[in-house]
Amino acid sequence: MLILKPSDIPSSAITPREQYLDRRRFLRGAVAVGAAALGAERIAQIVSPTSGVFAGTRLQTVKSPLTTTGEDLTSYQYVTSYNNYYEFGVDKSEPAKNAGRLPVRPWTVRVEGLVKTPKTFDIDALLKLHPLEDRIYRHRCVEAWSMVVLWVGYSLSEFIKQCDPLSTAKFVQFLSYYDKKVEPWAGDSAISWPYSEGLRMDEAMNPLTLLTFGMYGETLPNQNGAPVRVVVPWKYGFKSAKSIVTVRFVAKEPHTTWNDQNEQEYGFYSNVNPNVDHPRWSQKTERRIGLPFYAQRKTTLMFNGYGDQVASLYKGMDLRRYY
Ligand code: MTE
Predict the structure, then answer these.
(1) What range defines the domain where residue 187 resides?
(2) Is 65 contained in some domain?
């Protein structure tokens, strides 16, 4: 089993020094550009190199026909330092500082519930289950900010096929790693852990739904949900559970963390929808992280721009009711 300890990683698999230095140079540039938009305290937090931020093992990938093109990628530095991962702190800068403690090897994913036989997959077996693809997706958070991210993974449907779900399985639930000794910050919020998310089976089987192991050609940084997470690009970011340890096939809509917190604000479906405001703010536009202040404001697209591929999943549903 591949253990990602520094001593075990062949030098060929380590991010080239030039690339690392490029990132550092980029970071200095980004700080200059971002200075207008960010407070000094936030900048100080972003530039402090923390475990996980620069870590990463190169992954072999193939191009994907499902990539989104035409928009500039958000820089790696922003994607890895402006995070929601409440188990490691509620402030956006905290996961990058704290998630280095997440033990990403050994790691297993347990498959249970309505399946022929419950199974446990080792993460390194999961990595090899299907060729890894580079997929550029828009990433839209319910808080009305967005990024464009180069993820690495394969369609969740490839994994689900290996799980042999029964025909009675109508939904799939994802549970994240939780250990309060590793994640004492989890106690800072009223959330009942572990983080839980879910998809209807047809949403989970849609080829866009990505079982994600990496970003920008490397393994995921811990703050982005290492070693494995889902990414559902037409939904608000909170549907994309990080650091998954259990996948459970169920007959009924599973409970989800944000819906438990406030069902008026966070529905089960949570499709990106500029026509349905969040009770406390508009969803018509979004702020693209990492761009100069004058260029940040973007119009939010229905289904985050993935309507051609997913609108049919919701035919006949009142999307104001099933928000
Ligand atoms: N998964 C876990 N386990 N814990 C979390 O707090 N936050 C969610 C989602 N997955 C979260 C999580 C939210 S609110 C968002 S917007 C995305 O992760 C953020 O993903 P990113 O940090 O990679 O941008």
Answers:
(1) 56-314
(2) yes
Residue nearest to atom 6 of ligand 1 (CA): 85
Phi, psi of 162, deg, nearest 5: -75, -15
Relative to the CA of 177, which ligand 1 atom is closest? Answer: 3
Condensed to tens digits (0 to 9), the pLDDT of residues 198-241 reads 999 999 999 999 999 999 999 999 999 999 999 999 999 999 99
Tens of pLDDT, residue by residue over 105-114, are 999 999 999 9
- Burial (CB < 10 A; 0-12, 13-18, 19+), residue 212, is buried
Q: Are residues 262 and 164 in the same domain?
A: yes
Q: Are 15 and 58 in contact (CB under 8 A)?
A: yes
Closest protein CA for atom 5 of ligand 1: 85
Report pTM. 0.85
CA distance 285 to 297: 7
Pick from 258, 253, 264: nearest CA to 240? 258
Same domain, 34 and 105: no
Q: Ligand 1 pocket check: which of 84, 232, 270 to mutate, most ligand atoms within 8 Å of Cβ?
A: 84
Say if residue 154 is in the same domain as residue 23: no
* Residue 322 belongs to some domain of the structure: no
Residues 78, 147 contacting (CB under 8 angstroms): yes
User: Is residue 104 domain-shared with residue 208, that is, in the same domain?
Assistant: yes
